[in-house]
Backbone:
């Protein structure tokens, strides 16, 4: 399945209110979202047939659309239901869900006030984002050339398609060098995030993580912070300078796709995954599994 192009797969996609055959879920080449990145999306995980924190993801989708200046023509409850229908139609037990909303093709210019807003939800099986053997051993990451932009220059609080252009470029550049990912700095030179995940560091038993003031405060990030606090770990959210990267003993990243994954290297800096990383990895795995109600 992993080798089949995404436009050639079988099954159904929820598209503008209906489940349609997978290969019929198409848009025109002159769609505004393709040319001008007027598109927002979510990435969600299915565990045991249930979508983890579905409502939080749907609410963020609507907030992202609002930030980009358009209104999703469905209610939050309807999109929640669409996500569940897409998962059920594909028979997904453990996998991924991708809701996406975009401006259509009524107008083709920077201004697109009259364009219809389209919404689709697809779901598919999801293998490990990185090599499974590296999840605790730790991935190797480069330091990206591009930086996360200032909130004054981009809608940083949205999960908007256009914000990921520099992520793709940075990840491709890292992979060309043999790395799995890249750490991005922000416009001020502080540590920001990986190309698709938030980052945490450990020093003397204390967790340090960048303040999310110009990039997404991830749903997985918040979940892991809550789990860490339940364990009694101290969490420090602050601006972290690049020259501090050598001061930490452990490093891990969080995200819907990567879950909790250890980091062994960032450029010239090395880390040894240990107790805190393993504990939070295990706690997160337990948290996402559907809870079985007592009889």
Residues:
């Amino acid at each position: 399945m992993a080798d089949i192009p995404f436009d050639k797969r079988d099954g159904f996609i929820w598209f503008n209110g209906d489940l349609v055959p997978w290969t019929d879920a198409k848009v025109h080449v002159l769609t505004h979202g393709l040319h001008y990145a007027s598109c927002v999306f979510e990435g969600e995980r299915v565990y045991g047939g249930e979508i983890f924190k579905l409502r939080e993801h749907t609410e963020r989708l609507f907030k992202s659309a609002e930030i980009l200046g358009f209104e999703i023509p469905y209610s939050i409850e309807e999109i929640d239901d669409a996500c569940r229908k897409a998962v059920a139609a594909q028979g997904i037990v453990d996998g991924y869900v991708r809701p996406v909303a975009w401006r259509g093709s009524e107008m083709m210019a920077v201004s697109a006030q009259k364009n219809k807003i389209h919404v689709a939800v697809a779901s598919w099986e999801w293998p490990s984002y990185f090599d499974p053997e590296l999840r605790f051993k730790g991935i190797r990451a480069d330091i990206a050339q591009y930086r996360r932009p200032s909130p004054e220059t981009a809608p940083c609080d949205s999960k908007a398609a256009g914000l990921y252009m520099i992520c793709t470029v940075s990840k491709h550049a890292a992979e060309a060098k043999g790395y799995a990912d890249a750490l991005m700095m922000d416009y001020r030179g502080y540590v920001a995030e990986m190309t698709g995940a938030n980052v945490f560091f450990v020093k003397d038993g204390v967790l340090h993580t960048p303040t999310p003031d110009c990039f997404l405060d991830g749903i997985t990030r918040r979940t892991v912070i809550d789990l860490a606090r339940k364990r009694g770990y101290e969490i420090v959210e602050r601006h972290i300078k690049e020259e501090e990267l050598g001061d930490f003993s452990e490093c891990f990243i969080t995200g819907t796709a990567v879950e909790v994954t250890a980091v062994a290297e960032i450029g010239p800096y090395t880390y040894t995954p240990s107790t805190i990383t393993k504990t939070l990895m295990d706690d997160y795995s337990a948290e996402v599994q559907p809870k079985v109600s007592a009889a």
The chain has a mean pLDDT of 95.
